[in-house]
Amino acid sequence: MNKQGFFGNWGGSYIPEILNRTFERLREEYDRARNDPAFWQDYTNLMSTYSCRPTPLTFAENLTNHFGGAKIYIKREDLNHTGAHKANNVMGQGLLVKRMGKKRVIAETGAGQHGMATATMAAKFGFECTIYMGEVDVLRQRPNVFWMEKMGAEVVPVKDGNRTLKDAINEAFRDWVSHVDSTHYVFGTACGPAPFPEMVSWFQSIIGREATEQILAMHGRPPARVYGCVGGGSNAMGIFQGFLGNEETELVGVEAGGRGLDSGLHAARLSGTDASPGVAQGYKTMFLQNDDGQMLETHSVAAGLDYVGVSPILADLWERKKVRFESATDGEVIEALDLTMKLEGIIPALESAHGFVQAFKEAGDLSSDDAIIINQSGRGDKDIFTIADAFDDPSWKEFIIERAEQYKTNS
Ligand SMILES: Cc1ncc(COP(=O)(O)O)c(C=O)c1O
């Protein structure tokens, strides 16, 4: 990152003047933390005693035998407390909030995993907490809303725009501008104005640091490929940082292909041709937007991947051809999920399953001496309603109808 927060042509910090002082303080605190080895030590201690770190690297023997090529390893971010990689970033920012002496945190959330992690951190550190979530996502991820509220957070459904992640981000910025002194905005992914892209990626680098050591211990050499799904880009940045600059390893980011790249209903920013450079939500990247700069509607079966922008760090790595970008359709995602559950007894989040799709397409073409790593960013339990719908599961439907009848009779 250069002084103005740019990564090549991408990034920057396009913020309203009223936030200048707040961002200056955040940058100072972040720089201090980065240059203080004791901070990283505190952070890893917290993550090992509160969030099951280091998360394991699992050898997926049955999937490996099924595809008959590279050895498939899965980095298990689903085993983090709160069920996803989001906790890595949130607990780190929580430590910074304590250092800044603020008492309130706000956050946006799509899949609800970042909201869950933020509500958890706020409960642990004693902060007041408000979570902004698009109304569509509230419906898709109702179990996460339930837990956030139970942990004491206020969840505000956002009714603007297409009522998903970008609209939640806009609303969180509105709140921040009105409460700059008391409040920290816990940005959930490697996007937004500097220093968020770099800072979030730094906290998430814990994934790549662990994976590098684990794959060497288990396989004896670096992997041929590493796969990560890409919403805003934080879990992918997290694991990629362990292998960037390593000639032996190809990095593959997998975006939401939704109903197909020709359908207009997807969130492929770097793997398709529909995105163009733009400035929005405080930073410059490739956005899915029309010629007037209005954001386009996006779609994915995974609530955490249907964002219009993408990390400026990934946009730079894409431009410099350091990361290859692909996309997976909703249908392919459900098939990959089905296979992983049946063969490994592991339930990836719908977001993470995008990485599995691409790895499954390519594993058979590699040699059995090669290893590949898939970053399983989260667990799929939160997606039970969407997955049950996708499988058109009759007994689940019956159960829901029965429960609804019980609620009706008892109310
Ligand atoms: C489990 C999971 N994986 C991936 C993502 C996508 O975010 P990112 O690209 O920042 O990792 C989300 C977002 O909510 C998520 O919940």
Automatic annotation (TrEMBL):
**Co-factor requirement:** pyridoxal 5'-phosphate
E.C. no: 4.2.1.20
Q: What's the protein here called? A: Tryptophan synthase beta chain
InterPro entries tied to this protein? Trp_synth_b_CS, Trp_synth_beta, Trp_synth_beta/beta-like, TrpB-like_PALP
Per the record, the similarity remark reads: Belongs to the TrpB family.
Functional pathway: Amino-acid biosynthesis; L-tryptophan biosynthesis; L-tryptophan from chorismate: step 5/5
GO CC terms in record: cytoplasm
Boundaries of each Tryptophan synthase beta chain-like PALP domain copy?
Answer: 52-375
- Kindly list the GO molecular function terms attached to this UniProt entry: tryptophan synthase activity
Origin species: Desulfomarina profundi
- Keyword vocabulary terms for this entry: Amino-acid biosynthesis, Aromatic amino acid biosynthesis, Lyase, Pyridoxal phosphate, Tryptophan biosynthesis
Q: Could you read off the lineage of the organism from its UniProt record?
A: Bacteria, Pseudomonadati, Thermodesulfobacteriota, Desulfobulbia, Desulfobulbales
